Amino acid sequence: MEKIKVAVIGPGNIGSDLMYKIFRSKNLEMAMMAGIVESEGIRRAMSKGIKTTIEGVDGVVREDDIRIAFDATSAAAHLKFNGPKLREKGIVSIDLTPAAIGPYCVPVVNLDQLKEEPDINMVTCGGQATIPIVYAISRVAGAAYAEIVACISSKSAGPGTRANMDEFTETTSKALEVVGGADKGKAIIILNPAEPPLMMTNTINVRVKDPGVGFEKIRDSINSMVEELKTYVPGYQLRVPPTMDGDRVTVIVQIEGQADFLPAYSGNLDIINSAAVAAAEKIAEQMLKEGRG
């Protein structure tokens, strides 16, 4: 079966986990792992028979058959180098950094509108976990304000995550508005040093515009969204079911990772990778239909 060849830029924890997820894909072929030094991630890809380069994005754009690239580096690198070079080459960019050159993508909410975009941004792990719930609430009752608190194990926060903390809060807050439908959004991230490490947990508070639609309608919209999310993030679940007090709706969700490469408690990395692969799958499907393989 024909597949679309893809590259992963950034051979760290996120990039390595992406590689294993791509191995399972029906439409994607893992064609290259790109880094800038002979790292453990580069050696891991080599051991799996994957072509590698330590010239970063420059090594990727020299390849003529790569159609999609996942950028798992940093916001600064994507903004200054990777995004522009991939666009110039005509390679679709799936941006896992908070750079947000392209539009925000949360697959269950807006992927169908973005399949022709040259550069889509996967927001943040907290965004992928919470924006669908905010959207599920806003589509039936409106959302005047949405606030999320993403709590992740400190062990699952690598150098890239820690370097992008400011961008995380800014990007997630904006995406709660742009994609989630809230008039005003706020995001907070907490690194939890607990031992043993805890699963990623997200608390979502939304002040609705029209509480008169009733709690049942809001709850049903949330439950429907959770089932949709589980199609590509099977470890996604409601830790605390929706509650409503006046015009305020509160939901707590938990994400258990699929443990492809990273531990199951790294749900923060698992959900953004799963969302990125789900988006690439749909884009690749479109490419194959149009004969752009």
Structure, explained:
By secondary structure, the protein is α/β, with parallel strands linked by helices. It folds into 2 domains: 4-122 and 271-289, NAD(P)-binding Rossmann-like Domain (Rossmann fold); 125-264, Dihydrodipicolinate Reductase, domain 2 (2-Layer Sandwich), CATH 3.30.360.10. 40% of the residues lie in helices and 25% in strands. The chain contains 10 helices and 11 strands. The chain has helices at 13-23, 40-47, 56-61, 75-89, 107-110, 125-141, 159-163, 165-178, 215-229, 267-289; strands at residues 4-9, 28-34, 51-53, 66-71, 92-95, 119-121, 145-153, 185-192, 200-207, 236-245, 248-255. The chain has a 6-stranded parallel beta sheet, sandwiched between helices. Strands 8-7-9-11-10 form a 5-stranded mixed beta sheet. Helix 1 links the parallel strand 1 (4-9) and strand 2 (28-34). The mean pLDDT is 95.
Separate helix tally = 10
CATH topology of the largest domain: Dihydrodipicolinate Reductase, domain 2
CATH superfamily of the largest domain: Dihydrodipicolinate Reductase, domain 2
The ordered string of helix (H) and strand (E) elements is EHEHEHEHEHEHEHHEEHEEH
* Secondary structural class: alpha/beta
Count of domains: 2
Tell me the name of the CATH class of the largest domain.
Alpha Beta
Number of strands: 11
Which strand order do you get reading across the main beta sheet? 3-2-1-4-5-6
Terminal residue distance: 11 Å
Give a short account of the largest sheet: 6 strands, parallel
What fraction of residues sit in β-strands?
15-25%
Low-confidence stretches: none
